[in-house]
């Protein structure tokens, strides 16, 4: 009798241990699955932050197209190929890629090193219809709020600050090169800056407002600009000052200023004219002297 009770108790404990083991195993599996799903969603949010400089999800076009519903407009294979190497798809003569390039002011989307899995995570996030607001850093939100306040105030002093930053009168906080190293813009009927890159007088209109300008500054699609500011990014306030300045240049110039297109030509012609005048003066100076003038002068000097 005692042996029977002991055996039953032993079997019961065995069964209980097995059930507990299965329960904990199942709980661990569920936890891992839920955790991995959450991580993938978070990865999609994080990965999209780089895209958000030029694209929105359901908030309208920016530097690039609104990505809401993009998986319904394009095939999955096309999206993967285009995101990984837009330049390669463009060079292939793909009609869709060429149309996007022309529609969005001939601004190229840069190639990147995103894997297929990472792009899929971004697409899952886009299809989820979320804005990613839950992943915003509170400290960054405060900084963004200040920058938005500067834009809304549209202060004349802030426009002056933007002008000074653009032209290098005031240095960027992180030591980046001034905009006028490569660009020029007409402000108060004066044009200053380089000609290595595009004229920015009307960039506010060309890029569709503040969002477009910020997208280019924050995530430049141009290799030289990316390299220049890679370790010297502009602050949110500095971007806001520049955006206000460029809005002002756009408002002051209903049309692209002719001076922007011709000032370099005028400078070159002026320099060439001065060089020609210098040559003419030197030629006439030599012309009015005889061929033997120097010889005679030398003989007179030694005969004394």
List keywords for this structure.
304 residues, single chain, elongated
What order do the helices and strands follow? HHHHHHHHEEHHHHHH
Read across the widest sheet, the strand sequence of neighbours is: 1-2
Helix and strand composition category:
mainly alpha
Distance between the termini: 152 Å
**Helix proportion:** 55-70%
Unreliable parts: 23-41
Largest sheet: 2 strands, antiparallel
Determine the strand fraction and express it as a percent band.
under 5%
What does this structure look like?
The chain is mostly helical and 304 residues long. The chain has a two-stranded antiparallel ribbon. A hairpin with a 2-residue loop joins strand 1 and strand 2. Helix 7 runs parallel beside helix 12, helix 8 crosses helix 12 and helix 10 packs across helix 12. The longest helix has 50 residues. The N and C termini lie far apart (152 Å).
Topology, please?
Layout: H1 2-51, H2 70-73, H3 76-84, H4 86-91, H5 95-103, H6 116-128, H7 138-153, H8 156-166, E1 184-187, E2 190-193, H9 203-206, H10 210-218, H11 223-229, H12 236-252, H13 258-287, H14 293-303
Antiparallel strand pairs: 1-2
Helix pairs in contact: 1-6, 7-12, 8-12, 10-12
Quick rundown:
With 304 residues, the protein is mostly helical. It has 14 helices and two strands; from the N terminus they run ααααααααββαααααα.
